[in-house]
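PROTEIN DESIGN WORKSHEET
SECTION A - STRUCTURE
LENGTH: 290
TOKENS:
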């Protein structure tokens, strides 16, 4: 018995073609769903950005480039650089958080970490995920520790942090790429976490799935992933759609529609203050609070 990734029914093996039986559950479709053109659940969920992806101050969709916004250690809200610049100009920043107004003019990483730890104590999933992420990099005085990455991010994922799934996908992918055996459980775990993040609207997870599917020869699936993330404003995804057009995987009509939605998404992320902040540079914006 196998579960179809489109209708989600548990069906006998002979309900699937030999090719489909060899695929992961999430991308497997029964013969009935293929005949009916039923879409995979993986491609139906997470096709738009959720409220986490909007600036906590101006309420515009956050820029996709991470350096164009900052996660605040006091409240774990992400604020775009444009709002930092506007707050500075209006004289309301005063070295404090533009969202909750907590003073954050702190140069020492351990004091910033203490603020995050306070959020962890009240079970803030973003704060728990933050600790996991910085065990990857060794930032904020934390040591690099792959086990801690998985421990904290699994906890954050269980609490609903979609970015934690993405980090876990990366963590298991690193283990999988070092695996010498053909069958590797870390590969399955990596895909599972990327897929969970993607179905919650995580742009980078969606893009990563497209890249992985392309490497595995599933270019039709890769196109579907790239189309979703391109329509949310991700440039590399849009570039890959164009590449797949030259390879006859995408059509002119599909590419034109994706480009139109990509440009609309980029426009939605644009404001005068953000453009000015981008011209100033992320490091200059960060200098407002350190």
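SECTION B - SEQUENCE
RESIDUE ASSIGNMENT:
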């Amino acid at each position: 018995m196998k579960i179809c990734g489109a209708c989600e029914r548990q069906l006998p093996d002979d309900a699937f073609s030999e090719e489909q039986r060899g695929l992961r559950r999430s991308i497997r479709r029964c013969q009935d769903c293929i005949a009916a053109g039923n879409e995979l659940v993986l491609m139906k969920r997470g096709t738009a950005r959720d409220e986490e992806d909007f600036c906590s101050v101006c309420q515009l969709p956050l820029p996709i480039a991470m350096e164009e916004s900052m996660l605040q250690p006091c409240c774990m809200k992400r604020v775009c650089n444009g709002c930092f610049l506007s707050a500075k100009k209006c004289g309301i920043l005063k070295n404090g958080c533009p969202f909750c107004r907590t003073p954050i003019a702190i140069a020492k990483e351990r004091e910033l970490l203490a603020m995050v730890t306070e959020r962890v104590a009240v079970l803030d999933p973003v704060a728990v995920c933050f600790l996991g992420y910085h065990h990857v990099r060794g930032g904020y005085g934390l040591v690099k520790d792959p086990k801690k990455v998985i421990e904290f991010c699994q906890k954050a994922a269980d609490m609903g942090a979609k970015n934690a799934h993405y980090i876990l996908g990366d963590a298991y992918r690193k283990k999988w790429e070092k695996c010498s055996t053909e069958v590797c459980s870390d590969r399955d775990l990596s895909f599972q976490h990327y897929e969970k993040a993607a179905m919650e609207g995580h742009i980078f997870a969606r893009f990563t799935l497209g890249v992985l599917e392309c490497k595995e020869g599933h270019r039709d699936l890769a196109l579907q992933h790239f189309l979703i993330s391109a329509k949310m404003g991700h440039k590399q995804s849009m570039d890959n759609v164009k590449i797949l057009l030259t390879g006859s995987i995408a059509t002119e009509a599909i590419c034109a529609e994706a480009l139109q939605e990509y440009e609309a998404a980029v426009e939605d992320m644009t404001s005068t203050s953000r453009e000015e902040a981008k011209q100033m540079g992320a490091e200059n914006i960060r200098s407002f609070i350190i």
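SECTION C - NOTES
The first strand starts at residue 2 and ends at 3.
The chain has a mean pLDDT of 92.
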